[in-house]
Amino acid sequence: MKAKDLAKKLGVSPATISLVLNNKPGISDALRASLLQQIQELGCEKMLSDSCREGAAPGAPPAQKPWPAEGGCACRSIAYVIYHEHDYLEDMNDPYNFFSGVLEGIEAEAWDHDYCLIMLHAGRYKKATVEEQLRRAGNIAGIIVHPCTVNEQIAGMVRALPVPCVFMDTYTTLSWQPPSVCISNQQGMRRAVHHLHTLGHRRIGYVSSGWETLLNLERRRCFREALKDFGLTCREEDFFSAGQELGLLDYTRLTGDFKSARSLPTALVCENDRQAWRAIKALQQMGLSVPGDISVVGFDDGAMCTAIEPNITTVHNSPQLMGRQCVLMLENLIRLKELGEEPWLRYELPASLVLRASTGPAPGDK
Fold this sequence. Notes:
The longest helix is centred in the C-terminal third of the chain and has 20 residues, at 319-338. The chain is globular. The protein is of the alpha/beta class. Helix 10 links the parallel strand 6 (204-208) and strand 7 (239-241). 40% of the residues lie in helices and 15% in strands. The strands form two sheets. The chain has a six-stranded parallel sheet, sandwiched between helices.
């Protein structure tokens, strides 16, 4: 029986049954005791974690056990491999919140497919390579790779592994394209520009962070294409950079650039929500109204969108859905690998627009 089937049978959510099976805190003692009794009555004790069967308090670390022999873990596992890239994380809106959401989606889908989930670091613990860590873990069915820039070294290492790998939100200039799950930047930018176009905006600018990552370059390219699709002129003077060398919420440079511009567009599409936040603050400091004078659109739908007035219209990006789709793609790769195939798969998540108060009609159309 799968965890989701057990949850349905007991009339609780998959999240609740996961807390019980893994002996994690977050529910009342009474509910936990009741569910444990029902699980035992159903004969599903094997689904309980070791610490739960041993009677450890919820959240307590399991008893220390020696490393397994070469065979490793008895159940099939998915390895979540983290490559640390300082510049990438600095560029993210809220990297820790975003990737905790991705992990939540991965864990939920992994449970549904009867996988365990383990986390490994690449390049952080120098004593063990990724290959060595995987060998020690044992019985790894596949790998999900934390976002990184895929260079020749990483590509060679991944392709030499005996199990398939899936990358998330990864872009590369290599001839080999890694199997990956990404948000559709093209769809997101097209919906943002279409929304502003229907509001009467004909001059739309762009605000970037200054971080020239492949993801950011892709979003900028998609923005330019969206302008072209709607017959709008792409003006180079309407591209602004908030400045990577400044604090992540510093809008000093942006304010200066806005003030020095001969004129400003009536709307701005931003690389991500942080740049939208900075743009709104800069415009307000100049005495301009958002959206009265200039409309602003973000990208990613992070928590900061509702932590500012006006709340930010933005392109929605679901980290939980990204995590789930990574596991589903891994399942497909495992099947294809058994057939001797090496496919180039890329799944783009749908990008919807969340309408809030930072966009309105173009000034001349009111």
